[in-house]
Write a structure and sequence with these properties.
This protein has helices at residues 2-15, 23-30, 156-160, and strands spanning 37-43, 49-50, 53-54, 62-70, 75-83, 97-101, 110-114, 118-119, 127-135, 143-144, 147-148, 165-169, 179-182. By secondary structure, the protein is of the alpha+beta class. It has one domain. The structure holds 2-acetamido-2-deoxy-beta-D-glucopyranose (NAG) (3 copies).
Length: 184
């Protein structure tokens, strides 16, 4: 116990520079899940755009796309829940669940492809979820001008302009998007 607390104290002493920190400030520094920003996006069918044309997704569907970013480590953690989304996913990308770069009302390339939310209830049409973390460099499987649209992208770009990004999922029946929401 004594050794452990000495090691902890010395680690903290090394981490702390001029200004002494209170315990409540130390905790996030020690956590492996420290985020520099978080996003809670409610994605709906009415926000889906094909090019610049509103193209509503599945009626009654809703998505809760929760993200935690650590831009120092280029990590993005996700907890995505879809409700009322039916049928299989479809996208030319590696997966059909993305963060794209575009402002509200516009379309843009995917920058990150997340594992698709999968059924977690007895009724597979009702609730689907995907939880985990991804670390850059990112690939989407979509080429623009011969280059993967994830290449060179870092999550810091989201923090610098969250309104310039949206998140969505695509199904076979709603290819432009089943639900969509802006990160800000
Ligand atoms: C989306 O737009 C493209 C190009 O204008 C068009 O070919 C396609 O049919 C549209 N898709 C839907 C589902 O509206
Ligand atoms: C993901 O979000 C759901 C809904 O808010 C929550 O019940 C669940 O505990 C979360 N999972 C994790 C691993 O945080
Ligand atoms: C592809 O190249 C064209 C011409 O240089 C450019 O206008 C366009 O923005 C590029 N597309 C992407 C997605 O980078």
């Amino acid at each position: 116990m004594k050794t452990a607390s000495l090691i902890l104290a010395s680690a903290l002493a090394n981490a702390v520079t001029a200004t002494p920190l209170k315990w409540k400030d130390w905790k996030p520094l020690l956590s492996p899940f420290y985020f520099t920003s978080t996003y809670h996006v409610v994605a709906t069918p009415d926000q889906v755009i094909n090019g610049t044309t509103p193209t509503p997704g599945e009626p009654g569907a809703i998505g809760h796309y929760n993200y935690g970013i650590n831009s120092d480590l280029d990590v993005i953690c996700f907890n995505i829940t879809l409700m009322g989304v039916t049928g299989g996913y479809q996208s030319p990308a590696l997966t059909a669940t993305h963060i794209h770069e575009a402002v509200a009302g516009a379309s843009g390339p995917p920058r990150i492809a997340f594992p698709n939310p999968l059924p977690i209830s007895d009724d597979p049409s009702v609730v689907r979820r995907s939880v985990g973390c991804l670390t850059g460099p990112f690939t989407t499987g979509v080429l623009a001008n011969g280059t993967d649209t994830g290449v060179g992208f870092t999550v810091k770009e989201i923090e610098e302009n969250p309104a310039g990004f949206f998140t969505d999922s695509h199904t076979a029946r709603y290819i432009p998007g089943v639900v969509r929401g802006q990160l800000s």
